[in-house]
Amino acid sequence: MEAKDYRPISLTSFLLKTLERIMDLHLRSTIDDSYLSPSQHAYTKGRSVETALHSLVGHIEKANHYGNFTMVAFMDIEGAFNNVDPMAVVGALEQLGVDQSTVQLISRMLMRRTITSRIGATSVTREVCRGTPQGGVLSPLLWNVVVNRLLMNLDFLLIKTVAYADDVAIAVSGGHPESMARQLEYALRIVSDWGQHCGLRVNPAKTELVLFGRKYKVPPFAPPKLDGVLLALANRAKFLGVIFDSRLTWKENIRARAAKAISAIYVCKRAIGRTWGLRPNGVLWLYEMVVKPILFYGVTVWWQALDPVSNRLLFERVARTVAILTTGAMRTTPTKALFAILNWLPVDLTARQLAARTALRLCATGMWNPRPWGHASILENAGVRDVIPDLIDYCTPKPFLTRRFITSIWDEVLWTLHPYVYIRMDPGWEKGWGVAYTLRISMS
Fold this sequence. Notes:
Elements: H1 14-30, H2 49-65, E1 69-76, H3 80-83, H4 86-95, H5 100-111, E2 113-119, E3 122-128, H6 139-156, E4 160-164, E5 167-174, H7 177-198, E6 208-212, E7 225-226, E8 229-230, E9 233-234, E10 236-239, E11 242-245, H8 251-269, H9 280-295, H10 299-302, H11 309-327, H12 335-342, H13 347-364, H14 378-382, H15 412-417, E12 420-425, E13 437-442
Parallel strand pairs: 6-9
Antiparallel strand pairs: 1-5, 1-6, 2-3, 4-5, 7-8, 10-11, 12-13
Helix pairs in contact: 4-5, 4-6, 6-7, 8-9, 8-11, 9-11, 11-12
Domain Reverse transcriptase: 1-244
Protein name: Retrovirus-related Pol polyprotein from type-1 retrotransposable element R1
InterPro entries: DNA/RNA_pol_sf, RT_dom
């Protein structure tokens, strides 16, 4: 355990959290969307881990389809929220056109903080001059503002970048690995310069470099360097909880998903017996809410990996274990019979169903890029492309701050005569619907 492994948690009052929420709404309404990079998928309405994975995997699959390579550097910025320079935050806010009053308020919030650490009867208090508050309402947006400068610079150079908070993947595609390595090295130099400006650092030892492609013969090339350190070429890398292998077979990811789900099942198994413990509906709830999300995490990009029988059997064993615990059936009961009793779909069809649902949701927000190959062909593959309605009942959440009520403050005489609060709510007061409801709340 090292000092950098500790994370100071900010236990602020609800008043400060409310103020930060108001400032968050103000900043999001002030900053023009055209100034923000579309490569950031964290802490942004309408974007998520699914959109980040879809963007990166779609880029790799497109290069594979045309017989090219894709070189990706998976980076993790060390202590991003703890070490970022507050002056970098201030500079990024000013560059985005935020008013000086808000910038100065945020600057004082970041630079005039104290942290108290207690171990036993000993306590130490220190002033904080770096980072953003861990657990702060405004911290995620401030980080997006800081990293936005890096993402915009890479976007300007037409370098594919996918970022989710402090996890960043830089991808370069082409037919010649040597030229791709030099282009990626130039992008890494930009990352290093940006990190020095913001008081941050990308550890070369933790940066994973993977060359994706379908060709068995790869021309020799020298890997790129980061801060003078030669990056080691790996066959696989983990990004946003999903394991990417160099040929996108997803075998390692399937095995990891199955092993993690089995571990979760055995943790829950202690409370389940044939004649005691949780009822069948309780076991099914655990499967739907705990095991299934672990098993099919990120399935939108790897649903095709369940077509091979060997991969499908790994998931069937997990589902079969839950089915036996639920029904209390004998271990010799066929898997298909257990699935029929519980009205479960086969695991490969379940994966397609979940992937199609995600694709439809992303289509409604404009974040889905359909293609006739790879994971993005799920809608055509599932046969639902022709039955998709023009309008889907899903949209990106947006704050609606229009006031739909009127506040009248009575004088002292009226309060004495009428010791009640009358709240008049008229949802159609602007449209003249003439519908009103009155709530009578007693004052004590």
